[in-house]
Amino acid sequence: MVHFLIILFLLTSSAGIYTHPTLFEGERAYSHIVKQESMGPRIPESEGQEKFLNWAEKFLRDNHWDVRRQPFEEYYQLKDTDLDMTNLIATILPVEPEQSFILLGTHFDTRAFADEDADTPHLPVPGANDGASGVGVLLEAARILKNHYTIKNNYNIVLALFDGEDGGVEPEYYARGSRYFAQNDPLMPHIEWAVILDMVGQADLQLYKEKISLASASPLVHSFWEEGRRLYPETFRSGSQHAIYDDHVPLIEKGIPAFLVIDFNYPYWHTTEDTADKCCADSLQKVGDTLLVFLEKHHIIERRNND
After folding, report:
1. Is 2 part of any domain?
2. Per the domain annotation, does 223 fall within a domain?
3. Is residue 112 exposed (0-12), middle (13-18) or buried (19+ Cβ within 10 Å)?
């Protein structure tokens, strides 16, 4: 018995092992990356884009989220033309007056050209980490939230899968889907704050606080990293790095506190080598666990007693 208690103490106090586990499954999230990569490039107006929308919409409906498509046309700088794009917007509960919303978002589109690739810059980016990883975490979180948690305090959760994030050269031509959402969606006046995920799947994940996020939503950033460092101190680092124009920026410009979770130190960024073998379930597990514990900490969700 003494030996058993010692082993139990070591397991629950080791770095990366925590006393408040979630039901998030990193392997499921990773399977979503593999699935997305199998669709081919998810560029606006591509076959892969339509495959993705059909698959993700079905997944969310099967897990009893209310889902709608948000079509729009925007300038796509990489191709120097306007293209048809579509955001996928889902809420965990039916929309009711007086609800406050927490937005969980990521982009699903992939870059049309691998312009950081010295050998094949004309080829599309597979987008396993830069595109599919955030989707993988949020779809697995969507499954867990609907089936094992209660939403508290008159909140609702909106899950936004944005199109058109990665079609720019200059910063103002990125994040087209979140910009359209921020300027047009009827839920915008009711969103209290937002979390955006991007590039969270690479094997040696190192997450630093992003500088635009700190300027917009410092208390939320510090709170998220506090939970991350408690659970996974080897991944959630104490400092800050980079100021990145991503899907959080259009929300911030409309007055919503929003922050980005990203590991921008990714050697395969915007290359044809951004493939599923560069990602791992363990990294997705860490982000998913932290997200759920963070939402619980802020009294947005509560785990059901029988789960």
Report:
1. no
2. yes
3. buried
